[in-house]
């Protein structure tokens, strides 16, 4: 791991949400975002010519809710949906999740500790409140996957997620980087989870900076301890980018 270099106004910043901008909570809706985060992100985006985006497994609508009133460029559902900086939406075709939902709903109904998140193009089966049920959850998701060959299984933090094979955080970052205001900038990606590794690989292959937030194996060359450390870095980055250099005073 090496020390983070100072940011410059030529960066594009990409931020994961859960475990990165916000601490992990007992339930997906129990997450809280520090009160000054929307304003901080808005100011930082301003210093970067708006080249700042959220790249998350959640639907973009949920990110808008947590960061309200701020609406940033965003990739949601692991890249299955994307709102570009010009406000245009890009969505992969919705998979036929109806084929597998009844069996997964039945599993969750039989075990109140489990939680099923039904997204437009993905399904997340959470077992944070019932960790002993990880194995049956894996069996159920593996069986479901056999009916949906265009979907892939990912293991997140106490969650098993099924998302379109064509969707990924690396591809989402590449898509942003083909468009203004991201194009031509040095990409920085901050994430905490195995689902962020594809984005880490992508930005490092492009000469950018990958930052793992928290513990765990990673291909990222840089690390911050936790979401609080990221928030401190964001505040420092804003100060660095908005303080005139001595030469320009
Ligand atoms: O890509 P991310 O922004 O990191 O989103 C990944 C998944 O995060 C959420 O689940 C995780 O966070 C929850 C709240 O802290 C926690 O309760 C859960 O155990 C974690 O797995 C979210 O619910 C998923 O939809 C995201 O895909």
Automatic annotation (TrEMBL):
Known pathway: Glycan biosynthesis; trehalose biosynthesis
Top-level EC class as recorded in UniProt: hydrolase
Reactions performed catalytically: alpha,alpha-trehalose 6-phosphate + H2O = alpha,alpha-trehalose + phosphate
Names of the cofactor(s): Mg(2+)
Keywords: Hydrolase, Magnesium, Metal-binding
Domain of life where this protein originates: Bacteria
InterPro entries (UniProt xref): HAD-like_sf, HAD-SF_hydro_IIB, HAD_sf, OTSB-like, Trehalose_PPase
EC assignment: 3.1.3.12
Any Pfam family: Trehalose_PPase
Any one GO molecular-function label of the UniProt entry: trehalose-phosphatase activity
Protein's job: Removes the phosphate from trehalose 6-phosphate to produce free trehalose.
Family membership noted in the UniProt record: Belongs to the trehalose phosphatase family.
Record protein name field: Trehalose 6-phosphate phosphatase
UniProt source species: Azohydromonas lata
The encoding gene: otsB
